[in-house]
Amino acid sequence: MFSASLREGSLNTRLAELAATTIEANDGEVDRASMRDFDCPSYNLDVQEGEGFPPGAEEFRQRLEACDGFVVSAPEYNASMPGVLKNAIDWVSRFKPQPFNEKYGLVLSASPSMVGGNRGAWALRIPFEHLGARVYPDMFSLAQAHSAFDEDGRIANDALQKRFEVNVINFMDSVEAFKHYPCVKRAWVEYLGERPEPVIDRVQ
After folding, report:
1. Under DSSP, is residue 71 helix (H, G, I), strand (E, B) or coil?
2. pLDDT score, position 15
3. N or C end: fewer C-beta atoms under 10 angstroms in the chain?
């Protein structure tokens, strides 16, 4: 569980914490992380081959491998995802085996805008799903988030708070089902007829 914002007091950090407490209230275990844990220098293949992976990428990989599913609450920057998160994903995608493959994820977003960061959430699905992650279909975007939380850190609108809880609990149920019923897994390819090719393959 982590917020994709580096900012102190981030709205997405508050939403991530609300998701974490919801998971714990429903008998789940949460590993709270921070985007600072995964921050990396700009991806460069020469650096990877010459110096290896940076600590942030190693940490991101280890946390992914240790969990049944990941939850990220990401701000929307210019109608897309934060560059710091995309850069971390790019680094982690170079590991073998690649840890996003067949990992189950939930994408959240919070924004002061009326769309709640939803455009950024949709953009974030693309690299995750390209890497083989099973991203939960029902994302949650909190609009006008600067005024949406009450003093206890919950969503002040009761109906919206309930919808948020149901969304998180349903994600937990799906991860539990995937964990115990591997028959629901399906092979994933980007294009029909595609053949394994080490230069471009990120799903191993």
Report:
1. strand
2. 98
3. C
Q: Average pLDDT in the 96-100 region?
A: 95
Find out whether 67 and 2 touch, Cβ atoms under 8 Å.
Answer: no
Residue range of the domain that includes 28:
2-184
**CATH number, position 112:** 3.40.50.360
- Cα→Cα distances 149→1, 23, 112, 160, 165, Å: 19, 18, 12, 11, 14
Query: What's the pLDDT at 180?
Result: 82
Give a yes or no: residue 101 inside a domain: yes
Any domain includes 199: no
C-alpha dihedral, 4 to 109 to 67 to 178, nearest 10°: -150
Backbone angles phi, psi at 178, to 5 degrees: -65, -35
Span 86-110, average pLDDT = 96
Domain count, the chain: 1
Q: What is the pTM of this model?
A: 0.88
